[in-house]
Specification:
Helix content is 9%, strand content 38%. It has one helix and five strands. Strands 1, 2, 3, 4 and 5 form a five-stranded antiparallel beta sheet that branches. The longest helix has 7 residues. The mean pLDDT is 87.
Length: 76
């Protein structure tokens, strides 16, 4: 899990996690594309919001995306 962006006013952090597509034909929910690693394995990202708390939990957003811009456009 990697922190992507911090919003100090909302007291939350946007995080992303690399996932393997569940099926061979799964692609980005917004553009239909997908990424490939150096080993030619397909991957997508899932994004979530982690709130400031003593025991933080991540609220994962719906969908799998190839980039942050696709995630932001889909959830705008």
């Amino acid at each position: 899990m990697r922190a992507i962006a911090r919003d100090p006013f909302a007291r939350s952090t946007l995080v992303r996690e690399t996932i393997q597509p569940l099926a061979g034909n799964q692609s980005c929910d917004f553009c239909g594309g997908g990424g490939t690693s150096r080993r030619r394995r397909p991957f997508l990202y899932r994004f979530g919001a982690e709130a400031d708390a003593i025991h933080p939990r991540v609220a994962w957003h719906r969908g799998a995306f190839c980039s942050r811009s696709c995630h932001d456009a889909y959830h705008a």
